[in-house]
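Handout, tutorial session.
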Amino acid sequence: MAAPAEVSPQSAYVQHHLAHLNNTGHPQSSILDMSVINYDSVFWSLAMGLVVVFLLWLAARRATAGVPGRFQAGVEMVVDMVNDQAKSIVHNEVSRKFIAPLALTVFLWVTLMNALDLIPVDLPGAIFGWLGLTGDHHEHGPLYYHRILPTADLNVPMGMSLAVLLLSFYYGIKIKSAGGFVKELFTAPFHAHGFAAVLLSPFNLLLNIIEYAAKTVSLGMRLFGNMFAGELLFMLIALLGGAWTGFSAMNIGLGIGQVLAGSIWAIFHILIILLQAFIFMMLTLVYLGQAHEGH
């Protein structure tokens, strides 16, 4: 039997950086394991959420009726943008009083979580290693790299999309009543009367289940896929510096290439960070707006 192939240093580097600091002490082996808690994702997502709440509180506290400062003007621009989008999608004014602030919070929260990807790949691990909080295998047991990007952890985007799904159910039941919501599951999108309605009801239910599942999965997977790809590309760019072990012309060229490639990708990645946050916010508004409407 052939001996197992050795893992290359490049593959080991990437695998090491993709491991979470969790409650098991080793990388998660299966895609779905409800017993695993990624402490790093929980910490950084909650930290960015608190930062968003603090910034909005600070903006509200410093708001003046006169000429606004730069901070207030920036916050007002974002608030007006989100409010305009909410008005055009969610036509129920009572619901919009909650949904518009929710969309604003989601946009800023996802933006800040995504922005963590701009921190140099090896910096968080180095800092936590200096503090003795993380590291590689050693004689005292396994400790793993601290992964800083929450939206590249599938649990975070999917958790947020599940929250949007639950809110869709809530507004669907609130607007249409429980009986009307359940009735619509069996009578739409194929409308009929009499025996035909009974015959089509299982297909309507199946299509509605597929629709809700597709919305939820696509909402979370879109954010996860884009941020995971961006994180992986930063790691590949960081590998360019792995060959920089001296001061030869080739190594200097690799180092300069790493800095240039990383800077160019970071500048482009800023657009992805904002775009993915905007898309997640808009789809949240669309799905909650659809919950107020009938087929």
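The second record follows below. Compare its token runs with those of the first.
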Amino acid sequence: MRLFGCSHDQKGARAPKALSVVIPAYNSAAVIEHTVHRVAERLAGHDVEIIVVENGSTDGTMDICTRLAADWTPGPVSLTVLRSEKGMGNALRTGAAASRGAHVLLTADDLPFGFDDLDGAEKLAAGHDGRLPEVVIGSKAHPDSQVRRGALRGTLTWGFAALRRVILGMRTGDPQGTVLMDGDLMRGLVPGLVEPGFLFTTELVYLAERAGIAPVEVPVRLSDDHASHETRISRADVLAMGMGLFRLRARHRDGGRLAWSGSASRG
């Protein structure tokens, strides 16, 4: 049984893969091998690809990835290792552009939500004859999500969400969660994305919203490891990201509504 039902591209041809999982890897030597094997185990038996994109690591991340790729057993779950310039956005853009999946999942090197995002997507598909919304987000902002935050982290998260609403008019509660998107849609949007860092998925979801698409957010549980760590984002970082939102708005101000006929093409 194929993940999320049938997989076809815009022209009706069968997509090479049902799902592409893009994992950015920066100084990820401590977690990347375990993460790749977890994903492969979760998706065993499905026609999927794992794309790891190393981006400027200074530890042994690339050596581990190279070994994993060399030792990988051919089968329905494939592994590709790529490299990009430093920056999470650069890595995600590189992986998304290279993807071949009918759907593409952008996640993190340590799977902060486990597989709650995929589980939520499968429930959505099961209720709609195997079809997914064009954008599904593993969202910390969902009212049913279990996300334990300290006071500072909660305040900074609320502040940045408010900035997104005011500056960009975004309706999505957490565009910086994990993003599962129709593959044709994502590959069509990627050429217009330039954010090199943490704002990449915000830019991606913003353009999807401007195309008239309403992302569906599903609940997630933040892993205990993440919940126990203090945020590394400071008030200054939030200010810098807020300025980035102004930059993002100015960049796409004249873009108008993007033409996306993916829903119509799939019937």
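Points raised in discussion: The chain has a mean pLDDT of 86.
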